[in-house]
Design a protein that fits this description.
By secondary structure, the chain is an alpha+beta fold. It has six helices and three strands. The chain has one domain.
Amino acid sequence: MAVYTVHQPSATRANALPDAERIVFVRDGFSFWAFLVAPIWMLWHRMWLVLLGYVVVLAVADAALLALGGSHIAYSVIALFVSLLVGLEASTLRRFSLRLRGFRNVGIVSGVDREDAERRFFATWLTEARSRSAAGAPPAAPPPLPAANPAAHGAHGPDVIGLFPQPGAHR
């Protein structure tokens, strides 16, 4: 199953339902097209700053190899590694670009394919959005967690380190 992060444009109105068609699903993992044709992939996804950074990195590598007397094979190897890095980090670069364009991460969903992930996400998201709009207000914040009581742990502190339960405690 593939894992997708879900990004929604910043809300301009109280009703979030009309923005459902602008939600973007970004698949985690290696992107073959970003590896194979990185500049075209970046233009396709409107990743202007990422494309600018890509061009600058390749220009600096070319200038450094030219100054050091490097061969065309060395430049090709560097370009291949940069393309491999873009393919591996394509989803992170896309999330970064979406964040710059005002999108916010609203969830993570998994599915067999993108259509399945969309179906799973919208099944939950639409019911939550409708309940919020019917109530007329955003959902209440969850109740605060109880404060830790240092006296309950004894004079020497807790016997367990980290987020593990206390020894002998049963729930």
